[in-house]
């Protein structure tokens, strides 16, 4: 019994431990996980499969097509025909005899083989499906880049919220200590009430910021979970350190990277649009070409007074047809010409848009390099400013304790320190995000 109880206890302990297991992710691990489980990525993969099926669907229209048909008719009231009586041996001239032709029930079974021999629109359609498949693949690549960028931003925001909460917690503890000492001094008649109130105001502000930081920590983590494609309630743990991650993202050599336009995914998509308009122009032109199709039909008919078509002795009369269809467009009241001209205009617009896309990408690259350079400079500056703000606040803290500084001067130094702390944290996140934005343009 003791063995059973011990085993049961261990089982419950393992289950509880499994339920409390937390998923830990570095930034690279979170990115790799998202590129497999993100909802948009999953649908982008499905779009590629859909494009492949659409390609085969188009190709199949030019391959042999076989169709079958079976029909059955039962003439409840057969039509009557009047024939001159003199056609019959005993007929009276000038009169008519009512005659019913055929049997009331009939059945027909047939099969038809059709083969397209030439159709210009079919050739263009097959070529266009390849371009559409290329578009789906490039769209998947763009989705991956966007997801990667979103993961980096969300991951950085979680670290920012966590670091903010940690720093604000330390600031709160220091303020509480200073406020406690100031209250004791005031209670002993050696201080003024204004100093106590001033510190209380600052402490209340820090407490509100700390509460907000903790709420943001939860929300940003839920956002990261959503981007990664897991439940927003999942207790995800981030293994990166914001400062170390920022240091790893400082890479001045990236600024010297040359843009290979053909690697940029936005340029690829602009090229896809250009190809699409080109094939639309070819399709409009192909409508002026003739189309040729061949077919073979085989079938059989059977007639009876009652439904006995499935019996082995029922007689069936065979029939078969071989033929070709040639369709030649002759005159469309200039409708085809107008359609072709419109397609040509759309193609010319697409070429202009491709040129514009190239210039926009070059501009985006220069802007991204500038932003990345600025983020590194602001990070170095805010790092130095933080040291200075800490030194200023520490000196004012000592002066305030010794009675050489007022509570207002201390409050100013503290406010400056808190603002500099947040600027420093934000500068680290900016370095991470702006490096990613530059990498997306370079497709690295």
Automatic annotation (TrEMBL):
Which parts pass through the membrane?
Answer: none
Give coiled-coil spans as residue ranges.
Answer: 340-371
Per UniProt, subcellular location reads as: Cell outer membrane
The signal peptide stretch is: 1-18
InterPro entries to which the protein is assigned, alphabetical: OMP_efflux, TolC-like
Arranged from A to Z, the UniProt key words for this protein are: Cell outer membrane, Coiled coil, Membrane, Signal, Transmembrane, Transmembrane beta strand, Transport
Family, as annotated: Belongs to the outer membrane factor (OMF) (TC 1.B.17) family.
User: Any idea what this protein is called?
Assistant: TolC family protein
Species of origin reads Croceitalea rosinachiae
């Amino acid at each position: 019994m003791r063995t059973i109880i011990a085993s049961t206890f261990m089982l419950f302990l393992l289950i509880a431990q499994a339920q409390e297991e937390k998923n830990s992710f570095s930034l690279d691990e979170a990115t790799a996980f998202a590129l497999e489980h993100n909802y948009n990525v999953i649908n982008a993969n499905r779009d590629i499969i859909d494009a492949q099926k659409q390609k085969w669907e188009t190709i199949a229209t030019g391959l042999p097509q076989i169709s079958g048909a079976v029909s059955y008719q039962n003439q409840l009231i057969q039509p009557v025909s009047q024939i001159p009586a003199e056609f019959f041996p005993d007929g009276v001239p000038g009169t008519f005899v009512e005659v019913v032709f055929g049997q009331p029930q009939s059945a027909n079974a047939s099969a038809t083989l059709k083969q397209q021999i030439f159709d210009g629109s079919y050739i263009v359609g097959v070529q266009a499906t390849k371009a559409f498949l290329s578009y789906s693949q490039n769209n998947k690549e763009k989705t991956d880049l966007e997801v990667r960028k979103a993961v980096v931003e969300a991951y950085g925001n979680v670290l920012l919220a966590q670091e903010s909460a940690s720093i604000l917690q330390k600031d709160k503890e220091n303020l509480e200590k200073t406020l406690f000492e100031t209250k004791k001094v005031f209670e002993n008649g050696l201080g003024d009430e204004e100093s106590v109130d001033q510190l209380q105001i600052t402490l209340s502000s820090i407490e509100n910021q700390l509460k907000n930081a903790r709420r943001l920590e939860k929300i940003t983590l839920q956002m990261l979970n959503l981007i990664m494609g897991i439940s927003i309630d999942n207790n995800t743990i981030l293994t990166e350190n914001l400062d170390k991650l920022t240091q790893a993202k400082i890479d001045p050599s990236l600024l010297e990277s040359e843009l290979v336009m053909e690697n940029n995914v936005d340029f690829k998509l602009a090229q896809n649009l250009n190809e699409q308009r080109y094939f639309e122009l070819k399709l409009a032109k192909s409508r002026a070409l003739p189309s040729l199709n061949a077919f073979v039909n085989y079938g059989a008919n059977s007639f009876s007074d009652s439904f006995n078509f499935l019996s082995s002795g029922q007689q069936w009369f065979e029939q078969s047809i071989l033929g070709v269809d040639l369709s030649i467009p002759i005159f469309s009241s200039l409708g085809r010409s107008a359609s072709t001209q419109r397609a040509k205009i759309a193609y010319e617009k697409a070429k202009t848009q491709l040129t514009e896309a190239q210039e926009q990408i070059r501009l985006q690259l220069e802007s991204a390099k500038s932003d990345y350079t600025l983020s590194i400079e602001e990070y170095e500056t805010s790092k130095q400013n933080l040291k200075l703000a800490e030194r200023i606040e520490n000196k004012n803290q000592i002066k305030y304790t010794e009675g050489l500084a007022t509570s207002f001067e201390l409050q100013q130094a503290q406010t400056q320190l808190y603002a500099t702390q947040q600027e420093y944290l934000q500068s680290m996140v900016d370095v991470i995000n702006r490096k990613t934005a530059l990498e997306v343009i370079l497709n690295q």
